Amino acid sequence: MSVLAGLSHDLSSTVELVGRSVVAIHARRRIPSSGVVWRPGVVVAASHTIARDEDINVTLASGRT
């Protein structure tokens, strides 16, 4: 396997693994923001992307809310 092919394989494996932890956060009127599942029950996101404290919906990579 060439160096480039190895890098491509490693990158795609990492993206597949990490992608499972990315979520959509519906806490603004129009466009959802993204966050990362830090541990069970905890999602980390930038504070400026969250417009309210209540009625926040999170969509997991699996599509579950």
- What is the makeup of the main sheet? 4 strands, antiparallel
Query: Which structural class do the helices and strands define?
Result: alpha+beta
Using the alpha-carbon principal axes, give the shape. Answer: elongated
Counting structural domains, the number is: 1
Q: Strand tally, please?
A: 4
Rg: 15 Å
User: Strand order across the biggest sheet?
Assistant: 3-2-1-4
Distance between the termini: 41 Å
Strand content: 25-35%
Number of helices: 1
Poorly predicted tracts of residues: none
What is the arithmetic mean of pLDDT? 92
Can you write the helix and strand succession as a string?
A: HEEEE
Give the helix level as a range of percent.
25-40%
Please, could you describe this protein's structure?
The radius of gyration is 15 Å and the shape is elongated. The chain has one domain. The mean pLDDT is 92. With 65 residues, the protein is of the alpha+beta class. A four-stranded antiparallel beta sheet has the order 3-2-1-4, with no helix packed on it. It has one helix at residues 3-19; strands at 22-26, 33-39, 42-44, 57-59. A hairpin with a 6-residue loop joins β1 (22-26) and β2. The chain has one helix and four strands.
